[in-house]
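fyi for ur records
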Amino acid sequence: MKLKLIFITLLLAVTQVSMAQVKFEAKVSKKKLGVNERLRVDFEMNQDGDNFTPPSFSGFTVVGGPNQSISNSWVNGKRSYAKTYSYFLEPTTRGKFTIKQARIEIGGQTYKTLPIRIEVTGAVQKPKDGNNSDFVASENLHLVAEVSKANPYLNEAITVVYKLYVSPRISVSNWRELDSPKYSDFWSQAIDMKQLKIENGEYKGEPYRYVILRKTVLYPQKTGKLNIEPLTLTVSVDVPTNRRDFFGGRLYSTVNKTVAAGNRVINVKALPTEGKPDDFSGAVGAFDFKVTTNKKELDATESLDAKVLVSGTGNLKLFDLPKLNVPNGLEQYEPQHSEKVRTNLTGMGGNISDVYTLVPQFKGKYPIPSISFSYFDLKTESYKRITSDEIVINVKSGPDGSANAPNTGSESAGKKLVTQIGNQFRFLKLKANLEPIKKEYFFKSTTYWVFLTTPLLAIPLFLFFGKKRQERLNDVRGNRVRKADKLARKYLSEAKKNLGAQKEFYIAMEKALHNYLKAKLNIQTSDMSKDRIQRLLKERGLEESVSIEFIALLESCEFARYTPSSSTAMQQDYDKASRVIATIDKQL
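which gave:
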């Protein structure tokens, strides 16, 4: 009896697991369309089923379908199965409609899709087919700039995160930055992206995958409405079609799309004038302030260091530290500025300091007066002031002087008393031991004869080098080779500097290849499709093998930035690029 109970329990568990693995869902090409456009609806399942029953499609006319497609493949020993019923619908009127549930039987169980709401608007100027690859790519690929705060204060940190959203209906094989944003009214710092990571998320309520391409921290330097320019990418998108290969696998159409994040406007608020201290220098954030010395007791003519330090989080690199005031009798040197600041998505953090070297001249006690530092606190939205403690420097030994005399602020108060102490001029030499200078006449001297004969000896050298230069100018083919090699080195110099750093090397080399084409063929980067490049090179009389080799180099740059590559492979690609550019230049 127990054995039977265990068997039934296991059977139910296996059945539940198999049921949990079944997927049956409805997908549409878009949820909002014009009355003169078409809509594509796909009913997808991951296991074969029977008795498929589509919904009634109220509010639409079926103009195509059902088209049935099946994909069955094995990858690493695992079976992958997909079956799809596709319909093409044409709306009959404006309004909001619901594509109701479809039904199918899989393994003796009935499965239903979720209903989908569709909005039909007035006619659009350019109707787009729901099965058009270019349109499908546009509807399922989005570049978004997410700004942490739209109404910051002046000098308050905000972050811009650029995300590329990709629908599960398509896949992206490659992308390239076409235009980078320029933050003309901001202090900006890019956050290092060590690795691109694909994550799951939502875009306008629908499931999407996304990758974070760039993170930037901005500190606005002006008030009012400031514009953040868009990031623009060119993306290679693989769009599935209804066609199948010999083995039943779905065929894809590759579309090159240009996507932009769009302009973002930031409304920057001015700092309040109420309660603003007179010594406010623009510090915004949360800070601590102190003044310290490495010594409080020393002898005259010894030195000590006084440090003015501000630490915390905020715009540390964008304001000046308060100046240190010292009494007469302390010689003060220009401060040495130091910054230990890190920048992440929350903004700048760390500390900045000015270190003053002070040298007392006389015996006595020297009070270094307290100084104040003011900043705007973002949490309380108010100004705060921190005042340092007074520091007394005790000079134990040295010449007597007016060290303790108060600073009256008069002209004579800034002057220092110069006193003679012992043999302070002992380094001066009293006996010079001077010797008379011997007179030497230039005429008929060694120098005279050298100057006289050198021009005569230089004549054969001029003739020899002139002849070599003429031979070099007459060597047309050699000059062409040398010119081509020089041009290749010029364009690839940046790539050579980055040999060993894979990402930077291939970015530099791809840019060099594009710049070379722009210079030689007079085309813009946006027109540089591989087919157009091959056609232009062929029209200019370039050998087909060289053209193919150049295109292969471009493809190598595209893929190598995202796949591991050795230093040997990079060196080989660099040598190949130098050779190909030189060959093209000679043939063109």
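Confidence is low (pLDDT under 50) at residues 403-425. thats all i got for now
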